[in-house]
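Weekly puzzle thread! Below is a chain. First person to post its structure in token form gets bragging rights.
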Amino acid sequence: MAQVLDAVTLAVLKGRLEQIADEMDATLFRSAFNPIIAEAHDASHGMYDATTGETLVQGKLGLPVFVGAMSFAVKTVIDKLAREGDKPCDGDVYIFNDPYEGGTHLSDFKLVRPYFFNGKLFCYLASVGHWHDVGGNVPGNYNPVATESFQEGMLIPPVKLCTGGEINPDIVAILQANSRLPGSLYGDLNGQLNALNLGVERMNVLLESYGTEVVKDCFDALRARAATLMRGFIRSIDDGRYAAQDFLDNDGIVDEALAIALDIIIEGEEMTLDFSRSAKACRGPVNISRSTTIASCYVALKHVFQDVPANAGVLDPISFVIPEDSLLNATAPKPVGGYTETILRIIDVVFVALSKA
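Winning reply:
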């Protein structure tokens, strides 16, 4: 049972933790080789639970959709370790861009690093950034006529990039060989590794000052606060079903509109987001994975309920119904390169449905 932190200590720790994530963001923005990260800030960093991978603290300067998606990326690495009977070690870094596991699209490379303090796993640190070119049929990877993900770029499953702090040059060679801009790729990769290194340094200083138990209590308190606030906001809405629908004009291959339909069901302090009426998975590249759909809903809810801390507690009172093989729950090798068009429509339908509530 977490102890009750006094309000001042909790506020100071919250600010310190958010500053660490923001500084990781800023470090990558300054050092990235490609303007998609350096100027458009298409990246994000945060801290994630050592057991579940759920979001503890997230940087505020990066792309909003990553706030929800990165917990799925970290969970992917945790599941891989459990499946293979492996254990995380200090200095290890895992890398992958599988959009069906960690969300978004092939251009977004995730780096996940277990963070140890005094020899014990404390949490995970993670970085994601949009790389300039990762192969595929067209430079830059947005292929509007793709009908499978193989036409959009290379797909890297979770693999160990660094072991005990030592980078594996074979992995880097494979990545560079599949890019039209290997120098840009190498620079962005090292920028992300440096951001993770900075996160380790800053976390060391914080834990040396406050101790692991106090910081863990802070994480618990912030999550509990987010969940309590969300339940309170939901409870203030009348029970009922609130519907909204929007459309994509087509998928770029077949000239037929694609429905993104949402029913929000409010029952007491619980909310269900039901996308059962949405279109089936399509041939073109506007499909998205389940994790991307949930991340988009997270972004929309945080815009509506702005007082709620940005952590996993936001989703505690919320459940999702997203049918398999639908536009919003696509599996490999359905193309996903145009995911941005779809997530914006999801955010819209959440806004419209909640406006009716």
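Puzzle host: Confirmed. Bonus trivia for everyone else. The two ends are 36 Å apart (CA to CA).
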